[in-house]
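This entry is passed on directly below:
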Amino acid sequence: MEAENFFLDIVENAADEAMEEARETNHEGFVDNSGSCAIVVLIVNDICYVANVGDSRAIMSANGGRSVLELSKDHKPNEEGEAY
């Protein structure tokens, strides 16, 4: 459980810091076409934790490659619930 909490704290703190930095940056008159994406996977015993940012996707092969499991969902800024 300690490793799980450590992982969750790191992801949460990184996201908070990035959002705060973005809010403090003056983008007046600037058209931003950039973006970011990242996926982090932590496996502890038989539990798989996945955190993702941006339009990235994590999948996992199962059953000897006969099945594909979706581990994440793309984040798009124009989707409901994605913006502050």
About this structure: Helices lie at 2-24.
